Amino acid sequence: MNSKSTLSRILSNEKAPGILLILCTIFSLIVANSTFGDAYHHFWTTMLPLGNIEFWINDGLMAIFFLFVGLELKKEIYTGELSNLKAALLPVFAAIGGVLVPAAIYMYFNHDTSTAHGWGIPMATDIAFALGILSLLGSRVPLGLKVFLTALAVIDDLMAILVIGFFYTSNFDGTNLLISLGILTLLFVLGKRNVNYLWLYLILGAFAWYFMLQSGVHATIAGVLLAFTIPFSKVKTQSSLSTDLEHSLAKPVSFIILPLFALANTAVLIDTTAINGLLHNNALGIYGGLILGKPLGITLFSFFVISLGWCKLPNAVNWKHLFAVACLGGIGFTMSIFITNLAFSNQEDIVISKLAILISSTIAALLGYILLQFTLKNSEIEKKV
Questions:
Q1: Which of 198, 240, 307, 354 is the most exposed place for a label (fewest CB within 10 A)?
Q2: Neighbour tally for 215: CB within 10 Å
């Protein structure tokens, strides 16, 4: 077998992005706490035009990630699981529960403290990690469970994006925001008229990103809004500029942008201060929000809408399966770390939050995986009996 086909198999493996993120995180933590730590930290703060390398990853490359998320979200709304109201209700309400309950738990520990602004940290689910863990279980996982988790994570991302846009904005400048929105409105009109020049959307989108950055609203929001301006065909068999771009971005996002984000944002020094901080209110709020709040919120809100008869469990899925997947919802990682960088300016709070996110996400991943192993095994035994 040649190396090209081997590489193709690795890149097409749905487990690969999650595994790569884990490896990048471990590598970054080891190097940051080694004798090369100072040089490693200095590298990420190397200045470039507009900002340092870390800035260009978090505000630049992550805008491309959010463009990709927006394209996925648009596809789900127009032709996917969110296009049918009754089918969409369960993941929508589950996502709402998975946002409100973790935020409430975080605020229980942090109200009237200097870290109260971090309430958005435990709200988000890392879709790459969560689906990566689910894929480890192979064909035993019911299709309905995969669809539920995918839709849940996509809606979760949308809510996180709204939270970032409305609550994590600083030094607001209305003029620059209007210019950015004006450019995006022009692109939206062009999209509706089926103007199919990708370069036009990307160039004007870059200007929209710049003015959004100058407005104080986080620049990555421009990536999401840009996604909804690009022409999309509601006919599943018909290609469009939007679906072509989504397919083109899938591998660069999974294998370049998110790994770089992990490397740059998990380069934390684990010293005595950081370890002591793991029992502070901020960390306790993150543990409680991700490990307890996510599964409780997702499961309780799902139970509520199903009890009302508004929707039903997916085919071949029972409550044990749903709760196990709800535990995977506690894998915050990418979005949680992203919100941490916006919520805090104090470096100590940032480091403690990132360590708490890594610990919580690891526990949530192990808990979800073990529960799924157990429940899916029992389901197979019941079928045989």
A1: 307
A2: 23
